[in-house]
């Protein structure tokens, strides 16, 4: 079965113990969580990485969440945001929602509630991810995730497990840029020591093996300094 984190979630939480707890809960729910102790390192990272959701404490170490939200969306437009509040007052919740938050969650968090709210928010945001199902079909491409097999126009294409995970990630995020950090987490299980050339070699092999050429309906484009994007080409 395909082993891919469901979502990449940025957690801005100055309290290390709370961050560890929330990170473990998100991991148990199948999500990849990257912790930042304040908003400044998060915003710097967001300039070169893909995040599907921001979980931010009402005081994010250096800025109030109300100020972090517009800054985050300048870098990642449309980013869903959930704010964590300890013993919230109604006026505080109203203020946060008016500032652009999509939801609020009371701390200390309760695992099942938090995961349910995260999943509901991601569904509403329409975020796309590799699905945990046995078969995914994208046009002439069919992915069998039980056996890491892909077929193109009825013909089996021989891919390595890493190539299969890379390809499925690209097709799931069709017409959406996918950062190198996201690819490394999904394909190489968060290994940061993978050389850039290794990733580019895998992309080149996918382009060849899956015939990702404009005349056949798809184009795989490297995004300089960022990652890759797969697009459907309509002739």
UniProtKB/TrEMBL annotation:
GO biological process, alphabetically ordered: regulation of DNA-templated transcription
Residue(s) carrying 4-aspartylphosphate: 57
Cited Gene3D superfamilies: 3.40.50.2300, Winged helix-like DNA-binding domain superfamily/Winged helix DNA-binding domain
Domain Response regulatory: 8-122
GO molecular function, one term: phosphorelay response regulator activity
Record-linked Pfam families: Response_reg (PF00072), Trans_reg_C (PF00486)
CDD domains hit by this protein: trans_reg_C
PROSITE patterns: OMPR_PHOB, RESPONSE_REGULATORY
DNA-binding region location: 133-232
GO cellular component, one term: protein-DNA complex
Keyword check for DNA-binding: yes
Start and end residues of each OmpR/PhoB-type domain: 133-232
Keywords assigned: DNA-binding, Phosphoprotein, Two-component regulatory system
Recorded superkingdom: Bacteria
Official protein name in the record: Alkaline phosphatase synthesis transcriptional regulatory protein PhoP
């Amino acid at each position: 079965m395909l082993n891919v984190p469901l979502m990449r979630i940025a957690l801005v939480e100055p309290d290390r113990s709370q961050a560890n707890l929330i990170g473990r809960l998100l991991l148990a729910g199948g999500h990849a969580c990257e912790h930042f102790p304040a908003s400044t390192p998060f915003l710097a990272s967001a300039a070169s990485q893909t995040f599907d959701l921001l979980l931010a404490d009402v005081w994010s170490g250096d800025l109030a969440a109300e100020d972090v939200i517009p800054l985050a969306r300048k870098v990642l437009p449309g980013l869903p945001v959930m704010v964590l509040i300890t013993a919230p007052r109604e006026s505080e919740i109203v203020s946060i929602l008016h500032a652009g938050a999509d939801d609020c969650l009371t701390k200390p968090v309760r695992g099942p509630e938090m995961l349910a709210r995260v999943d509901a928010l991601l569904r509403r945001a329409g975020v796309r991810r590799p699905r945990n199902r046995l078969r995914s079909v994208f046009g002439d491409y069919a992915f069998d995730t039980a056996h890491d097999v892909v077929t193109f126009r009825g013909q089996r294409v021989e891919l390595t497990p890493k190539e299969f995970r890379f390809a499925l990630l690209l097709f799931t995020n069709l017409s959406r840029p996918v950062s190198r950090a996201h690819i490394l987490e999904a394909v190489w299980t968060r290994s940061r020591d993978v050389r850039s050339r290794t990733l580019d070699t895998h992309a080149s092999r996918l382009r060849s093996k899956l015939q990702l050429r404009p005349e056949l309906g798809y184009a795989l484009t490297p995004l300089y300094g960022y990652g890759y994007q797969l697009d459907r080409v309509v002739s």
